[in-house]
Amino acid sequence: MRVSNVTVRKRLVFVMFVGLAVFFIIALRLGYVQFALGGWLTERAEDSWSRDIPFEAKRGEITDRNDVVLATNVSAPSILVVPRQVQNPVETAEKLAAALNMDRQKAYDFVTKSEHIVRINPEGRKITKEKASEVRALRLPGVYIAEDSKRHYPFGSYLSHVLGFAGIDNQGLTGLELYYDEQLSGTKGHVSFFSDAKGKRMPNLADEYTSPVNGLNLRLTIDSHVQTIIERELDIAEATYNPDGAIAIAMNPNTGEILGMSSRPHYNPENFRDVPAEIYNQNKPIWMQYEPGSTFKIITLAAALEEGEVNLERDTFTDPGYIEVSGHRLRCWKKGGHGHQTFLEVVQNSCNPGFVVLGERLGKDRLFDYIQNFGFGEKTGIDLQGEAKGIIFNRERVGPLELATTAFGQGVAVTPLQQVAAVSAAINGGYLYQPFVAKEWVDPLTGEVVDRQAPIMKRQVISEESSKKVRHALESVVAKGTGRGAFVDGYRVGGKTGTAQKAKDGRYLENNHIVSFIGFAPADDPQIVVYVAVDNPKDTLQFGGIVAAPIVGNIIGDSLRALGVEKRSEQIEKELAWNDERLVVVPDLIGRTRREIHESYYDLSVDADGNGEKVVAQSPEPGIKVAVGSTIRLYMGDKSQISD
């Protein structure tokens, strides 16, 4: 059958339109792929071709408040292998094994793995620069040196429980390193190279570098001067008493800033694998819970003063050595008691029966209200992992006996940090602050502060007037009472001793105590609170006044001098015990002649040097108190050398 020309033309037109439609659809699709999906497809292609060699971000440094570096990074390159680029696996494995001191079979297994990139771990992880240079010199195809770093703690075990440590991947594992891991870590970078499906490097494509974003630097509230003094004193205590443990905390009572914190036993964070987990996991100043003993009496004293239940100078109490409560005889630490005394002397003597009376005057509800308001029974909120909250009696189960023992610090469990925060509130005007360690976050490139922690005042617990009375009472404890070992001439130290019994299996241990002292200074304007506790000191009388008080005195005296705090006048004169060293004031000898000095009498030795006839300089300076028999060094010169 013959087809007409009209039909042919119609068919041709139809085919043309179909062809144009198909072409148009293909063109649209190509345009969509080119312009809409082009970037995504390019990224997918590059991702399938590219291989990334990671570059670790620099972990932020940790410094003290004066920018002394406490935790930093040191270069520690790592070895990576791209197995598909290894040309001779046997030779490569042998050379790597020799350079890295590893088994050849293990090296061979690494270089023949069916993976894009393989880490040589642990032998090739975070190696020395010298070892990295040795491997680089081998020029092994498929073997790369990745820039890496590891954490370094310049002062070793110094502040170890607070700082904590970072692991092999630079992730924080304990302490501040864990608590602030996100801010310290930063973001990894990498170098990308391109390879074909067989893993061969594509020489015509340039490598791409994505720089890491370094972590922020952390500036602490810690003062390295104070921390060094604390570490020194705990080292001496360890060597002297061989205790089961020891702790020390120093805090600014007006802000909650931790100035120093340490405990024993301690460890070097860089060698944490060499010590048992119970050592590096236990930051005792915030974790340890125990009966505080007599340091807790400060809370009872503050509550009684605030409630007007005692006048320290006028009210009196007679202590026969015990007090009867609900058929139980609660004894004073001094056999035979302290006899008739004012309540100021009750505080000075740390008289248990006297504090039982104060507890009874307050009653259960008022005493426990103050205990809770001072922060006991809850975490302080410090920015460190593992803080405990302590244990206090359920108020519903408190009878006369529990009330009595609580009043002098027995039957409750507290942490050292809770005591520091509470006593700070008792002597700073009544304000309870939240302790903290992280002070500021600093940009590592610009040095600008990007964030800072302001002091957090939780509440006012007692009045300024009551706080002033507490300070006076505790200063008298150091000058005339059980805390005389903490006395520091010119700095008006106040404080309280503590000797706490340790319980095991429901019974108190014999001759095994935690002896403590909490002190502050200056008493007219406290700048530092220091708490020291020594667990089971050996070969000594286990009393806080004998063991812990002198340690606190040394820490406070040296710390205030390091912080530039001026000495005070109007200090309560120390009442000397039979074994106290007598002090004398250094006289002003400037301008005196040799003859005048020879004819005068001083309880001091004189060592004169120089050719003149008159004293032009002396050491120590006039007005300083020194031990009887100490040597004064004089420089003799002419009258013209004496300054006006």
Record the SSE blueprint.
Blueprint (H helix, E strand, L loop, with lengths): L4 H32 L1 H12 E6 L6 E2 L5 E7 L2 E4 L7 H12 L3 H8 L6 E2 L9 H9 L5 E4 L2 E4 L7 H4 L11 H5 L1 H5 L3 E6 L13 E3 L6 E4 L3 H18 L3 E7 L6 E7 L12 H4 L3 H4 L9 H10 L9 E4 L2 E4 L2 E4 L7 E4 H7 L2 H22 L26 H8 L8 H12 L3 E3 L4 E5 L6 E4 L4 E4 L3 H17 L13 E11 L2 E15 L6 E8 L8 H19 L20 E3 L8 H6 L5 E5 L4 E6 L5 E3 L3 E7 L7
Parallel strand pairs: 2-10, 25-28
Antiparallel strand pairs: 1-8, 2-3, 3-7, 4-5, 4-6, 8-9, 10-18, 11-12, 11-23, 13-16, 14-15, 17-20, 18-19, 21-22, 22-23, 24-27, 26-28
Radius of gyration: 36 Å
Mean pLDDT: 87
Strand content: 15-25%
The fold-level CATH name of the largest domain is: Beta-lactamase
Main CATH class of the largest domain: Alpha Beta
Strands of the largest sheet, in order across it? Answer: 7-3-2-10-18-19
Number of helices: 19
How do you describe this structure in short?
This protein has 644 residues and is α+β, with helices and mostly antiparallel strands.
How is this structure best described in words?
The protein is α+β, with helices and mostly antiparallel strands. The chain has four domains: 5-36; 51-219, Penicillin-binding protein 2a (Domain 2); 224-274 and 291-562, 3-Layer(aba) Sandwich (Beta-lactamase), CATH 3.40.710; 583-641, Trypsin Inhibitor V, Chain A (2-Layer Sandwich). Helix content is 33%, strand content 23%. A six-stranded mixed sheet has the order 7-3-2-10-18-19, with no helix packed on it. Strands 12-11-23-22-21 form a five-stranded antiparallel sheet, with helices on both faces. Helix 14 (352-373) crosses helix 15. The longest helix has 32 residues, at 5-36. It is elongated.
